[in-house]
Amino acid sequence: MTYPDSLTPREMEVVSKVMQQLPEKIIASEMHITLNTVKSFMRSIHSKTGTHSYAEMIAYGYSIGFSFDGSYRPKGRAA
Fold first, then answer.
1. What confidence tens digit (pLDDT) does each residue in 45-72 have?
2. 3-state SS, residue 72
3. What Å distances lie between residue 22 and 16, 33, 41, 69, CA to CA?
4. Is the predicted pLDDT of residue 75 greater than 90, yes or no?
5. Can you say how many angstroms the Cα of residue 33 is from the centroid of all Cα atoms in its chain?
6. Closest of 45, 61, 56 to residue 6, by C-alpha
7. What is the Cβ-side half-sphere exposure of residue 31, based on CA atoms within 13 angstroms?
8. More exposed terminus of the chain, fewer Cβ within 10 Å: N or C?
């Protein structure tokens, strides 16, 4: 599967967690990675998507097909 803006599967997972408005510490715990790794993913996502804040990342996630529960359905696909 190809993701928008060349995001990796793990970056998409981070966006999913952000859509659920989870703090970075909880994201790290749920993904079994360090907080520094989450921050690295966040920097990469911001760079690839042109977002600059958590709120902008939520708006971005919604625009590409995430819902606020973190589920993903790419925009433009039939139900």
1. 999 999 999 999 999 999 999 999 999 9
2. strand
3. 9, 15, 15, 11
4. no
5. 15
6. 45
7. 25
8. C
